[in-house]
Amino acid sequence: MRVLVVEDERVLADAIATGLRREALAVDVAYDGAGALERAGVNEYDVIVLDRDLPRIHGDDVCKQLVAQRYPARIIMLTAAGELDDKVEGLSIGADDYLAKPFAFAELIARVRALGRRASAPLPPVLERAGIVLDPSRREVLRDGRPVDLTRKEFAVLEVLLGAEGAVVSSEQLLEKAWDEHIDPFTNVVRVTMMTLRKKLGDPPVIETVPGVGYRL
């Protein structure tokens, strides 16, 4: 899952991004509304964590523009104002969820994951296929009942493959969903990650390489 964090308090923005990355999510950060729209114009995000009180372009206006463009990401608004009227207003302009500051990080994670499951075709909270069971909320993977210890990036790649439900996923799609904007698209990072993932999942192999197209589980 790929997430954009938009927050002008840089310490908070970086802390949120770091926490989300520890949950095996790919995260980009923007510190103002203009930066948010610029990144959304280049990358496709599943969820946008959007602070409401932003400089340059207000968070409300960012939300309205994204909704008007039919941008596919789900939007969760963050604000210091937690009154009912503020929540209603935030949802009325197109946000999918609303979280008042200060908030528990565990709650933010749960809401981001819940929105991510709704960003495209609905997915179950636990993904299963070919003897592989992946539980995003627990950061747990099992192969035929055996625990598999994966790095955050391996976990993210496996989650994308399982979410495709048997469809082929290209290297470009994996880079889009499992890495952030700082990755060099011309590196062999996908191939290397796939090699280590296959090794950890063990035999018989469950990840198929489709030559010239991508990977399928």
From TrEMBL:
Keywords: DNA-binding, Phosphoprotein
Regions recorded as binding DNA: 124-217
GO biological process terms, semicolon-separated: regulation of DNA-templated transcription
Xref: Gene3D superfamilies: 3.40.50.2300, 6.10.250.690, Winged helix-like DNA-binding domain superfamily/Winged helix DNA-binding domain
Biological classification of the source: Bacteria, Bacillati, Actinomycetota, Actinomycetes, Streptosporangiales
Modified residues (4-aspartylphosphate): D51
The keyword Manganese is assigned to this record: no
SMART domains found in the cross-reference section: REC (SM00448), Trans_reg_C (SM00862)
InterPro entries: CheY-like_superfamily (IPR011006), OmpR/PhoB-type_DNA-bd (IPR001867), Sig_transdc_resp-reg_receiver (IPR001789), WalR-like (IPR039420), WH-like_DNA-bd_sf (IPR036388)
Domain annotation OmpR/PhoB-type: ranges: 124-217
All copies of domain Response regulatory, residue ranges: 2-116
Superkingdom classification of source: Bacteria
Protein name in the entry: Response regulator transcription factor
GO cellular component term, pick one: cytosol
GO MF entries: phosphorelay response regulator activity; transcription cis-regulatory region binding
Keyword Phosphoprotein: yes
